[in-house]
Amino acid sequence: MEEDTKPLLIPVGGDESNYGIMNIQFNPEDFKCKRPFHVEPTNIVSVNDDMQQVTDEASAMNKRIQYYSRLTSPTDRALIAPDHVLPAPDEIYVYSLLGTVFRVDSCADGYGKNSSIVTIFVIWNTMMGTSILSIPWGIKQAGFTSGIILILLMGLLTLYCCYRVVKSRKMIPLVDTSNWEFPDVCKYYFGSFGQWTSLLFSMVSLVGAMVVYWVLMSNFLFNTGKFIYNYVHDINVTDIVPGTNGSNKVICPSAAGDHPPQNRSMVFSSGNSTGFELFEEWWNKSQTVPFYLVAVLLPLLNLKSPSFFAKFNVLGTVSVIYLILLVTVKAAHLGIHLEYNWFTENEFFVPEFRILFPQLTGVLTLAFFIHNCVITLLQNNKNQENNVRDLSIAYLLVGLTYLYVGVIIFASFPSPPLSKECIEQNFLDNFPSNDVMSFIARIFLLFQMMTVYPLLGYLARVQVLRQVFGNAYPSVFHVLILNIAIVGAGVLMARFYPNIGGIIRYSGATCGLAFVFVYPSLIYVISLHRAGQLTWPVLIIHIFIIVLGLANLIAQFLL
Prior knowledge:
Blueprint: E1 44-46, H1 56-69, E2 92-95, E3 101-104, H2 116-127, H3 135-142, H4 144-168, H5 182-232, E4 237-239, E5 265-267, H6 273-282, H7 289-301, H8 314-334, H9 358-367, H10 374-379, H11 387-412, H12 436-469, H13 476-496, H14 500-530, H15 536-558
Antiparallel strand pairs: 1-2, 2-3, 4-5
Helix pairs in contact: 2-11, 3-4, 3-9, 3-11, 4-9, 4-11, 4-14, 5-12, 5-13, 5-14, 7-13, 8-11, 8-12, 9-14, 9-15, 14-15
């Protein structure tokens, strides 16, 4: 209770280094890191067992402090609440649009308690997502050499823009921004326009990610069900698509045309062919399976709190590690198949440089996207002075992971007899449904996505319904209508446009235009201009970055 007797203001005197604004001296403990105990629906939400984000007491205290803060100017810290009146911070979660969720623990002694190694791993884990499945296809679209160069360049460019996001708060003078997120910075510079556009682009990327999830879950559920049915009924099935022979079979589904048959296969066993045909009729990748998912996932989306599913975050790491293992084993059996044709295309190989390279940049924009939650992730770093270094190392590891998976799959793809053009937008589709290693990978990814999907839906609900109704759960009816709209978008795309590479690059280029290219560059230029430090080289470089982001978006619709 001794702490409760401390005055909010300390008389002037003593060490002048502790003087605050207007000659008011502050207790040094007041400058410790204070977690926001009332989290507004920007990019961070807390997940509790009930629908409230905070207790009634904390909510009332938040309103009181907001009222007091309006009684003085933003530069006056006299009415800032001291630590001892704040409730203990609830657990909060940071959601990545790539499909992972990370729990941020409360601060201690002014800093987070994660070491640099943990911080690096958390950023790597948050960035790794479904985009990794499309990296080999993106390299094929860009060409082998240009694909490698683009992964390196996009990694460096997105890292720099992410660095600008991290530094954006500290460039705001005379305002306490210790608890601000990047959308708060956008609101400071651009007003309500910045707030609403950040919400819009965030929703585009959220819905895009959920649509990609639905398409992939339909794919994985279809192939998993097919594998189990054939195994239980001892059916030997060969898909009617071109492929290699042997135990490590690789297939080319796209060789059947722009709209490959979903269930065309041939039964070679003497089993009940009628039963198999009936199974194929009711177990169709695009016509039936996407609708089966509705019965499972729609009720989960309507839960008031998805905190239970956040416990399965480790599955994301396990899935990525297993994919790396799968790629390594497959490459060891298939060998390397490369031939360098710099500008000409032949029957089995693609040129090293192709005009379709923006399709890879669109995928990479989402693959390297962490800009909406990087501030919170780094706030939990024990060594704040190492933030830039740890962020750079994390980006390096992410880039190396993408390079490894993309290059190995492309190089080991058996050409001849198959053409490199056969590499699918989801490289697991190049392995038949009866491939055991691919079956395990699909099981891992299916279960991971089914646990992450409600988390993404919860975040979408918080951002939309709180803005419209001021409540993340205004009524069962409103939540149901929103969830039906989101699920319907996924079902329609899985039914008529199961093109995950296209969805990833469209959503990546769209949200990347705002969060990666435009806002970080504009905020940096404006802050330098207000400080009288803006130079022509800096202005030209950041205008060029904005132009690159705009060109990246436009190119997705032209190719």
